[in-house]
């Protein structure tokens, strides 16, 4: 990947009773997959600094499962932590595979980034303010499988993952956007997702063409979506792994504005 674009989105939360406690600007760094934009990702880091966000969220796949050390991901987090604003990071399918295939190295990775002050959310919520929490949902890995092997996520699955959901406004990192109707039923107010890489190839009027599960024209491919009182922002992502090709689909640093 040689370049990316910064895209802006917004949601109006002015009617929410706790709107005065929410962060106004959130930078979304999704699906980086150890890709570098300049030495130590200096171009990406500068773009984030220029936006002056209140919070940075990483809804999974900062790493690549097949990378033996994930050095680029770790050094990026080291430099990101030095910016001095809260960073919330949840697991994608590659973090899940990393844990499964090399648990010892994975545990060292998690321990190291937590020492940096990164909020690593593995089926957990953490308070941002009195009535606002950030959460990270790690769905069962079978929900990422292809074809008939895909497990269809249910509300009960989500409750099994995170049985104790806090009151108040919930901003949740859920890597796979396919299950947005389930997240809405769980009363997640704002969802941050990625995973689909914008559908790899994007066509006018039709959007993304294919998902990593080889499903054509995925519904929640990129951008902003709403169901009931829930809003989901799906990043086109910043990197690639197996299919290192995009058409009409620029890698994206997503900036979300939450209006009070």
Q: What integer is the average pLDDT?
A: 92
Q: What number of structural domains do the residues give?
A: 1
> Which of globular, elongated, flat, extended, rod-shaped describes the shape?
globular
Give the % helix: 10-25%
Q: Structural class from helices and strands?
A: alpha/beta
Global Rg: 17 Å
CATH topology: Purple Acid Phosphatase, chain A, domain 2
Distance between the termini: 35 Å
> What strand order characterises the main sheet?
1-14-2-3-4-5
CATH homologous superfamily - what is it?
Answer: Metallo-dependent phosphatases
| Uncertain parts | none
Counting H and I runs of at least 4 residues, what is the number of helices?
6
Strand percentage: 25-35%
Query: What CATH first level would be assigned?
Result: Alpha Beta
CATH architecture: 4-Layer Sandwich
How many strands appear in the DSSP assignment?
A: 14
Largest beta-sheet details: 6 strands, mixed
The SSE order reads EEHEHEHHEEEHEHEEEEEE
Can you tag this structure with a few keywords?
260 residues; Purple Acid Phosphatase, chain A, domain 2; six-stranded mixed β-sheet; 22% helix; globular
Please outline what is shown here.
By secondary structure, this protein is of the alpha/beta class. It is built from 6 helices and 14 strands.
Overview of the structural elements:
By secondary structure, the chain is α/β, with parallel strands linked by helices. It has helices spanning 42-51, 71-81, 93-101, 103-115, 155-161, 180-185, and strands at 5-12, 25-28, 55-59, 87-90, 119-121, 124-127, 132-137, 169-174, 190-193, 202-203, 207-208, 223-227, 230-234, 252-259. The protein has one domain (5-259): Metallo-dependent phosphatases (Purple Acid Phosphatase, chain A, domain 2, 4-Layer Sandwich). Helices cover 22% and strands 25% of the residues. The strands form three sheets. It has a six-stranded mixed β-sheet with strand order 1-14-2-3-4-5, covered by helices on one side. It starts with a strand and ends with a strand. The mean pLDDT is 92.
């Amino acid at each position: 990947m040689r370049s990316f674009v910064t895209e802006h989105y917004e949601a109006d939360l002015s009617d929410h009773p706790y709107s005065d406690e929410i962060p106004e600007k959130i930078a979304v760094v999704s699906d980086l997959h150890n890709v570098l934009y300049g030495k130590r990702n200096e171009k990406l880091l500068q773009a984030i600094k220029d936006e002056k966000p209140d919070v940075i969220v990483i809804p999974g796949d900062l790493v690549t499962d097949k990378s033996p050390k994930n050095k680029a991901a770790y050094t990026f987090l080291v430099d990101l932590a030095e910016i001095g604003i809260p960073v919330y990071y949840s697991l994608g399918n590659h973090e899940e595979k990393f844990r499964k295939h090399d648990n010892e190295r994975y545990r060292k990775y998690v321990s190291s980034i937590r020492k940096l002050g990164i909020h690593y959310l593995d089926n957990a919520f953490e308070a941002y303010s009195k009535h606002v929490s950030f959460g990270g949902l790690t769905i069962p890995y079978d929900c990422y499988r292809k074809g008939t092997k895909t497990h269809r996520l249910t509300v009960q699955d989500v409750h099994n993952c995170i049985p104790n959901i806090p009151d108040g406004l919930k901003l949740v990192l859920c890597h796979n956007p396919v299950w947005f109707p389930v997240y809405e039923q769980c009363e997640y107010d704002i969802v941050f997702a990625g995973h689909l890489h914008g559908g790899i190839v994007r066509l006018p009027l039709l959007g993304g063409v294919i998902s990593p599960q080889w499903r054509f024209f995925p519904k929640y491919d990129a951008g902003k979506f709403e169901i009931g009182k829930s809003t989901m922002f799906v990043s086109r992502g910043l990197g690639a792994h197996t299919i290192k090709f995009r058409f009409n689909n620029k890698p994206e640093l997503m900036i979300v504005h939450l209006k009070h």
